[in-house]
Amino acid sequence: MSARAIALVWLAAALVVVPGLSRAGMKVDLDEELLRLLRGEQPNAHIAGARFRVAVFTYEDPDRTGLGNLLAGVVAHEVLLNSRLGSLGVLRYEGNLAPSPGVPGLSYFDKVDRVTEAQHVSLSVWGSIRRLSDRLLVETYLQLPPDSLRRFFTWRLPVRAADSVPGGVAGGAPPVSCGTLSAQLRPERVAVQVLEVPFAEQGHLSRFSFDLLRKEPESRARPVGRLRKGDTYEVLKREGDWAQVYMHGVLGWIPVRPACGPACDQLAKSGAFVRHLLEFMHGRELPSLGSSTLHAEALAVAEQLTALEGLAGGSARLEQTTLELAGRWDGPARLTGLDAATGIDRGSGPPPGGAAFANIRAMGRVALALEVAAEEVGKASAGLDREARLAMAAVPRTELLTIAFDLADALQQDPRSADALRNLVILFRCAGDEQRARLAEQLAGK
Amino acid sequence: MSGTVVDATSGAPVAGAVVKVRLAQQVLAEAVSGTGGQFRVAFETGGSQARNLRLDAEHSDFIPPESRLFVVASGRSDQAVFDFELLPRALSHCIQGAGRQAIIVGQFSGEGDDLKRLSSRMGEALTYSLRVQLQRLKVRPELQPTFAACWEIEPRSIDLAGRCARALRAEALVFGKVSRTANRFNVKTFVGDDYGLYAGEAGILNKGVDLVETDEAVLDLQIHAAILTVLAAAYQRQQRYGECVEATVAAERLGRQLTEKLQRLRRACIDSSGVSALTRGGHP
Q: Which of B135, B208, B241 faces A133 most closely, judged by CB atoms?
């Protein structure tokens, strides 16, 4: 049996015998797809069988360095070829995100949104390369569409309020359920990395290509094909730093790790961050950044995920994780400057995501108060399991009012925070301050 | 009645403008502006009954401005002095549509091989970086700025640039001066705005810009931050207080400093947004 026939059998097994267990990539013409969308046509979903699909767009290149596609290729390869996910599709959109007469009224993030909504991808990546006087500035952004935010990055916490003591077992009206607090990962348009590359590397980068398929896993091996727009290529296996792919009857090898110098190695960290998010979406695995050149927003996202996952983890985790992490970005103990663990600069101004960490802190405090109340319930009614105790627990209204006021303070720096405003409606209402609850409702409606 | 006629873009007096007093379509009197742009026009006020009159200024090289309305009763006008700012016809393509945050990139004057291209290049650079910043903050598309290169505009001062921006229905006018150093250029950039935020300020200097390859010219991030500050003021005027606060946040990030202007704008927008009423001392 020839190598090609073996590969075909393998591919069939991957796609048919174990449906969804495959990884594939595809290059797509951005302008063509946008024009179809503007004409009201709905393009077919690319790599439709993959459980997770990621769109990576040509990096915007306003200074015409010619590296936009290469940079997108580095990130796309890192996501596709190093991912541990069994079912993944990476769509590499080639085209211009800048305003253009053919696509009126849309540019950059808005163009990305339009395409990714139509394709229902899990997340999108794009970026830019700018020429400064002596160096290149490469920025990478990640965009989470509303559907992904709803499905994978939303946390909820039902609240019960009592008139006085924790558990609401003494005096006053009986505890009441008064709403569900919620938080979403913020911001949903994330600056993942801002990388400065010595100008001298431009020439080296421009000689590199991701699109060449070679006969053997070896950089000097004979080219047997080229990845073209519209063609899907399946990843069959890895061998060292190479991956074997199959595309339209051609078997070939492409490099896994970009060998295009230190700039590519650094940029691949953006791709790795995207992989971490996909792994979280797949199995709630929390990202670990290690020592990193990523942007403060990437650190904020990683810490938000950890903090929000801690909401359901009991008193100790709430104190040591959720509230501790929220406090790193919000409040008097806000950390500034270089982060000791990652080396990422946390900055000093308003935190990424605006009031997001203040919102998490508010939810963490409510969750902790519920845990304390649940303990009281347990003392009064032995034999109840944790779930049952929590279901009966309630937070004193006075405590809810304090939490609401603290969140309102944080809102002053981010008055458009819909998450915080919605939670304030619930917190003020639970606390019995109907006037403020109505005002928050009005502001949230705007 | 009297007044002056000046060029809105340069502040230079406009001689030879015909100023007419009209009652409906009937011309009651007319005068021609002198070398200093001044005019004086006399007419019969016509009894004690109040009449609504109109004053127009016309010049073949300029776009006719909107008529100025006034009331005459019992021989007296409710206004005696009128100043007209006329826009040159050559700039008619620079007038921006209403209801859109427009920034005009005017001329970068001085030495250089392709100053026209430079203006357009600066417009492209600003479009990229500022629109991306605002989109990241999810500012709605209709509130995102447009950048129009209009290299013919060469204001003589920041104050005039602000007036010019207003006349062209833009929020701000960015312009600059270019001087040669060795084999490169220094570019000093100014922002004139409709809000007087940057009136009287020194420009921002970019040293060693390559103007042979204008594609390589980049603007200092302080200019970007200044324009975001102007946009924050525009949002404040439109009562878009949330967007105003976010534009100040973006300006602080880009400029890497919280200037007094930004702080003032942010405070004012927060106070107007209604969220302060949710705090402990607030009054909902």
A: B208
Task: List the beta bridge partners of residue B26.
Answer: B23
Instruction: Report the half-sphere exposure of A194 (CA within 13 A, side-chain side).
Output: 10
Interatomic CA distance for residues B269 and A415, integer angstroms: 9
- Residues from chain A that touch B131, judged by Cβ atoms under 8 A, are 99, 107-108
Note whether B136 contacts A: Cβ–Cβ < 8 A.
yes
Could you give the CA distance from residue B152 to residue B108 in angstroms, rounded to a whole number?
A: 9
- Predicted TM-score (pTM) of this structure: 0.83
Tell me whether residues A108 and B216 touch, CB distance under 8 A. no
Contacts of A405 in chain B (CB under 8 A): 279-280
Where in A351-413 does DSSP place strands (E)?
A: 395-396
Please tell me which of the candidates B253, B258, B275 has its beta carbon nearest to residue A415: B275
Say if CB B277 and CB B173 are below 8 A apart.
no
Q: Closest Cα of chain B to A272: distance in Å? A: 22
The pLDDT tens digits along chain A (446 residues) read 455 555 444 444 444 433 444 899 999 999 999 999 999 998 889 999 999 999 999 999 877 888 999 999 999 999 999 998 989 999 999 998 888 877 877 888 889 999 999 999 999 999 999 877 678 999 999 999 999 999 999 999 999 999 865 544 444 567 889 999 999 999 999 999 999 998 888 877 777 777 889 999 998 899 999 888 888 999 999 888 899 999 988 999 998 876 778 888 899 999 999 999 999 999 999 998 887 889 999 999 999 999 999 999 899 999 999 999 999 999 889 999 999 999 999 988 789 999 999 999 999 999 999 999 999 888 888 888 888 888 889 999 999 999 999 999 999 888 889 999 999 999 999 999 999 999 999 999 86
**Closest alpha carbon to B158 in B140, B175, B178, B183:** B175
Q: Maximum Cα–Cα distance for chain B, whole Å? A: 72
Quick one: CA dihedral A292, A295, A298, A300, positive or negative? positive
Are the CB atoms for A30 and A93 separated by under 8 Å? yes
CB contact B138 to A (< 8 Å): yes
Report the alpha-carbon distance of residue A350 to residue A326 in Å, rounded. Answer: 13
Instruction: Please say whether the beta carbons of A409 and B279 come within 8 A.
Output: yes
Bridge partner list, B184: B181
- In chain A, which residue's Cα lies nearest the Cα of B241? A415
- Taking the Cβ of residue B214 and every Cβ of chain A, the question of whether any pair is shorter than 8 Å is answered with no
- Smallest CA–CA separation between A404 and chain B, in Å? 9
Question: What six digits make up the tokens of B96?
Answer: 């921006």
